[in-house]
Amino acid sequence: MTAIMDYEIFKQKVKIKVGLDLGSYKEQQMRRRINQLMQRYNISAYAEFLELLDKDPSILKHFTDYLTINTSQFFRDPAVYQALETELLPNVLKKGEPVKIWSAGCSIGAEPYSIAILLQEKAPGGNWRIMATDFDLSILAKAKAGIYPDNTLSNVPQRFRQRHFTEQDGNFILDERTKSLIQFKQQNLLTDRFEPNCDIILCRNVFIYFTVETQDALITRFTQSLKPDGYFIIGCSEMISDPARFRLRKVRPAIYQKIS
To answer: What are the CA-CA distances from residue 189 to residues 50, 67, 175 (Å)?
Structure first.
């Protein structure tokens, strides 16, 4: 059996076992990550690694956590949050309609919580809701706990640190009010239903791991989930080529608006 065939079978087994379609990810990047993990367990063959995943639930969990890359910070890429604070959020709030914001691939929760902090300043008690989804249940549990090391808060303005966080044993604990404003849910972006009628969708630093075909399919679905004139925000290292084919127009780096 060739290495290519071996990996193809491995992908099929992983899809059945954990629900992740590795075929939607950039193969070279994903294979490198998987091979690095296998080396930690002194395993060189995919068949042997599958046997280990079957036998040991803790290693299966480690494998799933390892595949779903989770790095995040509060107010990551300050220019994006500046645009949210001064332009995007005021634009959707001034319509006077219920506002729905979706953080897709929310990781440790820093992104949706950053939005919630801004909205509490802009429209305290307003008619808005924030949804946050991720595939990784263990990372969602960390997000709900709201306890963060100092390095995740490096971009947080001092006024927000003082108002929304309490330092304890070297960590920073988010206040209960802000935590209560986020609706967390597990979601597989490749297979699960998307939220409709969103004013703002953030899916940042996720596309870089997917194939071009999967990226296009996801962008199409995200655009369909936006209200007319709604905003779609991606990572600053990502871009959408020819956004008009998705009924989007670029308004700022990493920020697109649905053409109504």
So the answer is: 24, 14, 29
Instruction: Give φ, ψ of 12 to 5 degrees.
Output: -65, -45
Pick the closest to residue 24 from 207, 242, 224, 246 (CA basis): 207
- Whose CA is closest to 108, among 70, 165, 150? 70
Residue at token pair 């263990």: 138
CB 114 within 8 A of CB 84: no
| Together in a domain, 87 and 181 | yes
Residue 72 within a domain: no
**Which domain, by its residues, includes 51?**
3-67
Tokens of 67: 């595949």
Q: Which helix (H) or strand (E) holds 61?
A: helix 57-67
Quick check: 238 and 208 in contact, CB under 8 A? yes
Pairing of strands 226-233, 198-202: parallel
Claim: this prediction has a pTM higher than 0.90 = no
Give the CATH number of the domain where residue 229 resides.
3.40.50.150
Distance CA 79, CA 81 (A): 5
DSSP label at residue 191: T
Beta bridge partners of 131: 102, 183
List, for residues 138-165, the tens digit of each pLDDT value.
889 999 999 999 989 999 999 999 999 9
Same domain, 176 and 90: yes
Residue 76 and residue 106: Cα distance in Å, rounded? Answer: 12
